[in-house]
Design a protein that fits this description.
By secondary structure, the chain is α+β, with helices and mostly antiparallel strands. It contains eight helices and seven strands. It has a seven-stranded mixed sheet, sandwiched between helices.
Amino acid sequence: MNRDEFIQPAHINDEEWALRVQLAQCYHLVDWFGWTEAIFNHISARLPGPAHHYLVNPFGLNYTEVTPLNLLKVDLHGTKLEPSAYDGNPAGFALHSAVHGARDDIHCLIHTHTTPISAVVQKKRGFTHDDFYGAQLYGRVGYHTFEGITLFDDEKARMIDSLGSNHVLVLRNHGIAVGESSIDKALFLLWTVQRAAENQCAAGALGGEDHPLEDGIAAKCAGLTAMLIRESGFASKFFDAMVRKMSLERALAW
């Protein structure tokens, strides 16, 4: 990987460069956690300003090959705003442009379909809220009926309707998209969703009856978690700690 990819060029201001660096770190973390889908899936971060431009990965690169400099800058139509040898993943533009165009409170959107998540969203009931992580999602999940590969503009409005005011969108029979006001908060929310899916799959494989949580307890848990993420710096601490751990493991591997 070219070292120049990590040197801030003169034409990119400090605010955008910091966003690029953190988004590249987010791609690397998703790979490090084992949540990638080969070269597919996508993470976007909205750039400051009224135009709703956003950054997204170059299609064809592994997540570990994403750098601050090779991230694509696109508009809400998926049109590249700066020259690049790469194009974006067409399947990502409908989802990301829909959310970035409609939700000013969502600045980062992450789409995955790991095996546990894919298994849960295939089930008619979707996410349950009877374990520690599932409870944190109570009242925070919208459900969207599968319409095939997400390529077409006419599906955008329906996805936004399905998302509502939530920050987790279940794409039934497909995967999930999570969105938050910053990259670190979106990653922490994705981690919560992933852990909920893993626990639900493990519990479902066991015999015996589940011990249900009362709705009021689940709602309290979800509310407290949302408050911690948005008001305490909780997500930033998590993100930075995971970057340090990933970096150390990579250094030791060398």
